[in-house]
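re: the backbone from monday

yeah here it is again, tokenized this time
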């Protein structure tokens, strides 16, 4: 698995190529022409929580799963780590020192896309 530093060093063309692999997977698996970042994170969140799709899931729960998935993805590349659980059984996360000082919102989204692609790579190669 590449590190956060490796992913930050990718050029735009390589970042787009990696996201295109995720989109191709989503299209083949779910018939979606274009995968949204939030949609893929939602699927990762469901998987991480050991849950299946629930048609009447509340918006707050969907948002919580997306945030949790973002943390899982960044954990895999060294950006966050789990440090414990709270009283309700939710993970407590800590940001690592691997993060750069500041990233623009575009750079943050690009980083999240390539981190998702890196996280999913072992599943997509099967």
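seq for it, each position gets an aa:
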């Amino acid at each position: 698995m590449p590190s956060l530093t490796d992913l930050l060093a990718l050029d735009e063309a390589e970042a787009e190529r990696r996201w295109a692999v995720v989109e191709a997977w989503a299209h083949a698996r779910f018939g979606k022409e274009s995968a949204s970042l939030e949609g893929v994170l939602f699927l990762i969140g469901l998987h991480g929580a050991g849950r299946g799709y629930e048609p009447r899931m509340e918006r707050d729960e969907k948002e919580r799963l997306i945030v949790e998935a973002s943390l899982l993805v960044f954990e895999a590349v060294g950006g966050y780590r789990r440090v414990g659980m709270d009283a309700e059984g939710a993970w407590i996360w800590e940001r690592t020192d691997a993060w750069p000082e500041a990233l623009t919102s575009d750079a943050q989204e690009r980083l999240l896309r390539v981190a998702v692609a890196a996280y999913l790579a072992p599943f997509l190669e099967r």
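DSSP finds five helices and two strands in the chain. Helices lie at 4-8, 12-30, 37-48, 59-76, 105-124.
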